[in-house]
Amino acid sequence: xxxxxxxxxxxxxxxxxxxxxxxxxxxxxxxxxxxxxxxxxxxxxxxxxxxxxxxxxxxxxxxxxxxxxxxxxxxxxxxxxxxxxxxxxxxxxxxxxxxxxxxxxxxxxxxxxxxxxxxxxxxxxxxxxxxxxxxxxxxxxxxxxxxxxxxxxxxxxxxxxxxxxxxxxxxxxxxxxxxxxxxxxxxxxxxxxxxxxxxxxxxxxxxxxxxxxxxxxxxxxxxxxxxxxxxxxxxxxxxxxxxxxxxxxxxxxxxxxxxxxxxxxxxxxxxxxxxxxxxxxxxxxxxxxxxxxxxx
Length: 296
What we know:
The chain is built from no helices and 15 strands. By secondary structure, the protein is mainly beta. A hairpin with a 2-residue loop joins strand 4 and strand 5 (68-73). Mean pLDDT is 79; it is low at 1-34, 42-51 and 100-110. This is Pecanex-like protein 1. Residues 18-116 are annotated as: Disordered.
């Protein structure tokens, strides 16, 4: 299998590719309307504090932090505090007459939630910024539609499966990255104007087409979020034509870190135009992972 690795830091890295093939699309039993019922989870534990109070929108009081009141949404703000699931525990839409808006069903809200007020869903007539043209530049408005999203069972996932704990300054080392439900066959070069230019798309089996990225940077400290503008010490995007329903592993060779300290190495999936792939649910973990490595 031919591995094509695209580098944005003038670093050429060759990946070792594990063969993988796309598997047949399985039978997706999504449940049925007759079993759709309210199924609110209990309020999350608030270790060390009194029980959290649950508001009508399903959020819990996280206390005052940094001078501001924190609200934690255990289920991303369910309407009226009610979560509806089928007989397999999957989200569903209740049929008319189930009490979703009348209070006839136990646990259902007694009134419909107010409609969401969005800031906008397009650039034209809403944003004052110029349209993004596919090149890596800020202060733009991306007009590209987000694209296709598959069911939760086939959304991409990613894990760093192996990395060293310590390395020496300038020493090359390897990181192993496993992906699932990601077909690594689509890459529009960002430097060539392919950044945020294309919508996300699925293949015939409903799997995301794209690639994944790997980057390592030195952390100034581990007590605060790092500055976002600095270039990483290492970065590659990997497209090899592999990947599929079953997980496989790619080995990335990092060419070395520039100084002593703590390095953060991360890997994350991208669609053909470099966005984190879309997910069916907001509570799903995106396809990314990070490790910290001591550089001595």
